[in-house]
């Protein structure tokens, strides 16, 4: 279907004849006399009915007058409700003809300037004002529209063009990245503190490269590196087969290296204990030059931090990563000593429940969510994807990245009589485990496979269990899914699929199927809540702790023990007895 680009509301203008005609209409002159006296037979005002045109004109001028002066609202109250215009109200509307043309402001609601269908799509992304929209475009860059249903490339171009036409009040949207030269790398310059790049694009200036760092080991080094950046990359290379660990460690290490060069203005291999204490202090409140909205690592908008406040838990994690990295560099004789060994970790309050199991859904709410999604799945392929994903997490306790990485060859029928299946999962810690899969989960996956023109019980190829059925028409998606059904979701791509369920519940639950408390709980939920739901319901149903631990893939039974609420319930029960006895 061709996407139309008529999404910006047209500006309404009126002639002096229109104002004269409306004055006559308010004085109850018959409509056919107004038409004969002021308009010709082919006038566009007569095309859909003159009276309809004059009523619409009156309503538009009323809103325009009130917008420019809210004090008019009471005077025009009767006219807004379709009543007769007083002489005073008529004078106000006549003067509205001279009101200056409206200019978009960042504080304006998007509904004031765009057509309803586009407004609905933008509001679904929590975009309510023009400021929200302009900010989102600035953060995401030229592909800002890709994650927003019904806002395709053509409509996005119209929106950006319209914003730039009003750049005097909205600011200009430009996707041309500031030039960093023809090469992808950048030489760091402490005199240009805002020009920051990730470690893979980083070139250290000679003075801060670490070639002659005062902490360099005088003995033979076990790794072939020439500077601090290469030494850090050597350490990170150890985790390339653990993508989550790799990304977490890389983030902390490149933050530290950038701080060392750009803020401390020292080579990393020259940092001493007092420097480490200074970085520990810096982590509490990273400076503004180091913080910004989340952006891709290839964007000039990328910054090492997304917030100027870090929690004690995040600070401690950063120090643990850096301390381990320095230990490695000492062990391979790149550094002579590890100054981090004497740095005290930030104090972190031990939580009662380190894992947020309170987000788990009750059995009743979990079944209501599934029932809601099933009702939509009858007519919607995307809902069928969501249903399969939710059941894999909530009925089998899978993590989001485990769902994304599952394939057909790992799903097997275990028992024909009870219709139970097993799924081999490659999970956290690079470990495989076997999880049970319910019949209703397999039925949901089977329906999703029919949307892909495949039969789950016939096709035994090692294809992703869950795969997109609608491929966005942009280059990255086309390249990823160039062969039908061979590309599955990434863990990040599954996030909006799951969160769309919450949005649909909030938008479509007009019959009160969900209570206000349930809606509120879902609004503060997350995809991982389904895994907690499985753990909580499994333990409450009497599943042995060691069995639940095996299914969830916990390394320690202590972790699984957080779902055991027996002691907590007993404590509160005894407290109730105590309080009521007083």
Blueprint of the fold:
Elements: H1 16-26, H2 31-38, H3 50-68, H4 72-75, H5 77-80, H6 87-95, H7 116-123, H8 130-140, H9 153-165, H10 167-170, E1 186-187, E2 202-203, H11 228-236, H12 243-263, H13 273-284, H14 312-331, H15 363-377, H16 381-394, H17 400-405, E3 411-415, E4 420-427, E5 431-437, H18 439-451, H19 475-480, H20 491-508, H21 516-523, H22 529-540, H23 545-552, H24 557-560, H25 566-580
Parallel strand pairs: 1-2
Antiparallel strand pairs: 3-4, 4-5
What does it look like?
The chain is mostly helical and 582 residues long. The chain has 25 helices and five strands. Helices cover 47% and strands 4% of the residues. Strands 3-4-5 form a three-stranded antiparallel beta sheet. It has a two-stranded parallel ribbon with strand order 1-2. A hairpin with a 4-residue loop joins strand 3 and strand 4. Helix 1 packs across helix 3 (50-68). The protein is globular and about 100 Å long. It starts with 15 loop residues before the first helix and ends with a helix.
């Amino acid at each position: 279907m061709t996407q139309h680009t008529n999404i910006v509301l047209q500006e309404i203008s009126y002639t002096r004849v229109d104002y004269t005609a409306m004055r006559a209409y308010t004085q109850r002159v018959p409509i056919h006399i107004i038409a004969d006296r002021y308009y010709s037979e082919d006038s566009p005002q007569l095309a859909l009915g003159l009276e309809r045109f004059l009523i619409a004109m009156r309503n538009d001028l009323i809103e325009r007058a009130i917008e420019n002066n809210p004090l008019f609202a009471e005077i025009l109250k009767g006219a807004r409700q379709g009543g007769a215009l007083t002489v005073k109200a008529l004078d106000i509307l006549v003067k509205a003809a001279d009101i200056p043309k409206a200019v978009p402001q960042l504080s304006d609601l998007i509904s004031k300037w765009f057509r309803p269908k586009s407004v609905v799509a933008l509001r679904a992304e929590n975009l309510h004002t023009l400021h929200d929209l302009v900010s989102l475009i600035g953060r995401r860059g030229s592909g800002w529209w890709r994650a927003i249903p019904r806002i395709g490339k053509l409509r996005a171009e119209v929106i950006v063009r319209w914003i730039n036409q009003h750049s005097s009040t909205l600011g200009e949207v430009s996707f041309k990245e500031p030039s960093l030269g023809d090469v992808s790398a950048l030489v760091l310059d402490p005199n240009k503190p805002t020009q920051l790049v990730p470690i893979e694009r980083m070139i250290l200036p000679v003075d801060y490269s670490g070639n002659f760092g005062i902490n360099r080991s005088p003995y033979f080094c076990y790794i072939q590196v020439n500077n601090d950046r290469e030494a850090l990359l050597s350490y990170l290379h150890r985790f390339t087969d653990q993508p989550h660990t790799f990304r977490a460690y890389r983030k902390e290490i490149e933050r530290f290296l950038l701080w060392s060069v750009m803020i401390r203005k020292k080579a990393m291999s020259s940092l001493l204990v007092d420097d480490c204490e200074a970085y520990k202090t810096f982590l509490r409140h990273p400076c503004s030059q180091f913080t910004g909205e989340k952006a891709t690592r290839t964007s000039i908008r990328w910054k090492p931090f997304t917030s100027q406040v870090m929690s004690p838990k995040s600070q401690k994690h950063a120090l643990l990563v850096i301390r381990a990295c320095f230990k490695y560099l000492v062990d391979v004789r790149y550094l002579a000593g590890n100054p981090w060994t004497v740095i005290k970790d930030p104090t972190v309050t031990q939580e009662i429940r380190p894992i947020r199991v309170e987000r788990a859904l009750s059995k009743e709410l979990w079944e209501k969510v599934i029932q809601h999604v099933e009702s939509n799945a009858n007519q919607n392929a995307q809902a069928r994807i969501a249903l399969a994903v939710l059941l894999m997490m909530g009925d089998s306790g899978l993590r989001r990245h485990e769902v994304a990485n599952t394939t057909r060859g790992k799903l097997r029928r275990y028992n024909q009589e009870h219709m139970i299946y097993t799924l081999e999962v490659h999970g956290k810690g690079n470990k495989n485990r076997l999880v049970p899969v319910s019949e209703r989960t397999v039925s949901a996956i089977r329906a999703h496979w029919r949307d892909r023109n495949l039969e789950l019980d016939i096709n035994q190829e090692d294809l992703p269990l869950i795969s997109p059925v609608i491929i966005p028409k942009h280059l990255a998606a086309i390249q990823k899914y160039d062969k039908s059904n061979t590309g599955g979701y990434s863990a990040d791509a599954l996030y909006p699929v799951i969160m769309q369920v919450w949005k649909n519940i909030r938008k479509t639950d007009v019959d009160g199927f969900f209570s206000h408390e349930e809606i509120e709980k879902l609004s503060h939920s997350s995809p991982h809540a389904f895994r907690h739901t499985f753990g909580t319901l499994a333990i409450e149903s009497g599943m042995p702790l060691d069995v639940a631990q095996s299914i969830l893939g916990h390394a320690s039974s202590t972790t699984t023990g957080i779902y055991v609420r027996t002691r907590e319930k007993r404590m509160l029960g005894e407290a109730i007895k105590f309080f009521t006895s007083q």
